[in-house]
Amino acid sequence: MVWSEAEGGIPVGLALIVMAAFGLGFNRSMQHTKHCVSRRSVANGTETSDLLHRKSEGIDVKSISSCALCDVDVANKNDSGEHILLQSLGGRRQVFGFICKICNSRTGQLWDASLNQELAHVALMHGVNRQRSRELPSKKISTVDETQLLLHADGSMSPAEPTFKAIEVDGKLTYSAIARNVAEAKKMIGGLQKKHPKFEATLTTKTEYNNILKMDFSVGGPQSGRSLVKTAVAFAHAMGIPHNDCSNAMHYLRKEQAPPCYGHFHERDLVSGRSSEHLIHCVSVKGDSSKQALLGYVEYFSIAKVVVLLSDKYLGPDVQQIYAIDPSSGHELPVKIDLSLTQDELDRVVHVDESDFAAYRRSLDQAFPVLMGRVWQRSQDQAIHNAIGQAFKELGIESDEELLPNQYWQFSELFVKHLRPYLEATFVIPAL
Ligand SMILES: [Zn+2]
């Protein structure tokens, strides 16, 4: 009998590389919006039920000291620190005097949680440094053959559930099982030995590197779309632009049936100065009084990229500010964002057609090598870390003890033994 068990997590890198090489398993569909509307129709939207308060309410909003979403006073106790970019995805900067605590909580649980869920697998693969927050929860993913796996915060994977099979071969009953860790495997063996006292088990550990994963990169439903738009309005607020100057966005955020005031933008890269080491999050707002346009741009992981038509009646000062971070560190980045969109481009923002998919695919093709680089580096770091840990453990050396000179050779052998599955999957190793 053979017991297969994943020792620790499986570095996800090689699985993804296989996927990328053969172009399998992707659903790159651009799932934007059932509503394709013009800017005019956004401005002329009819009155609908209030999104957060269920009562009928006009779209006009009051001074900057009132909640942008429900109009209550946000001074003092009722004020909330709203993260401009999602804290759960590594955002740092907060705005105050923007929305009340209740709206912060509600939109966090509905809108932000939805966006967070759509981007969770990218966050786990890339790595996110979250401020004052626990590590990212593991997410269930599947391979093209429908094997269920868990993707973990360190970028590794493990079987989602243990499996257990009894097979009769030549009159002999053979049990085969996959456990998620050694303790789980030993528990299974113990259970069988109670049932069959003569039962003998062979426990082997095995790490699989060659699964092809299925991933969905769709972003922007009714909930997550509002999170993206809220980010642009929050950044405008941080720039000193009152939320009532973001009339299209406020209508969309407040009215459940309002058409989206944003669209995915992939036909050209508006960001310059990207790093090849990591993906980025960024937000920018630009006010152009000559065009009466107040535009926002929000990007997560260099994959979700949206232009937000905050207002087409903007008469404030000509301004632009940019806030960009590396999600793996939270450090701010000096990128430039060109929001000088042509009228044709603006008109296309809220319209989606066939050509958008090709543009989206080109955009993903630029982001993917960077994501793969992160995955590769993290899986290599993880494999080396695990191999060192296993070698120390087998030598009986505690973490605070030093390796003695007479243990060097044995340590090297054990280190290579535990690193070998990773090396075999990474490089072609000739038979000895
Ligand atoms: Zn509120």
Q: How many structural domains can be distinguished in the coordinates?
A: 2
Give the tally of β-strands. Answer: 18
Secondary-structure element series: EEHEHEEHEEEEEHEHHEEEEEEEHHH
How many helices does DSSP assign?
9
Mean pLDDT across the residues is 79
Q: Overall 3D geometry?
A: elongated
End-to-end distance: 27 Å
Please characterize this protein's 3D structure.
The protein has nine helices and 18 strands. The chain folds into two domains: 3-27 and 136-215, no CATH class; 39-122 and 218-352, no CATH class. Helices cover 34% and strands 19% of the residues. A hairpin with a 2-residue loop joins β9 (163-169) and β10 (172-179). The radius of gyration is 26 Å and the shape is elongated. The model is unreliable at 1-64 (pLDDT under 50). The protein has helices at 13-22, 39-43, 101-126, 182-195, 222-238, 247-254, 343-349, 354-395, 408-426; strands at residues 3-5, 10-11, 26-27, 82-83, 94-95, 139-143, 148-151, 156-159, 163-169, 172-179, 213-216, 262-264, 271-272, 281-288, 293-300, 304-311, 319-325, 336-337. With 432 residues, the protein is α+β, with helices and mostly antiparallel strands. The strands form five sheets. Strands 2-8-7-6-11-3 form a six-stranded mixed beta sheet. It has a five-stranded antiparallel beta sheet with strand order 12-16-15-14-17, sandwiched between helices. The structure holds zinc ion. Residues 67, 69-70, 72, 99-100, 102-103 line the site of zinc ion.
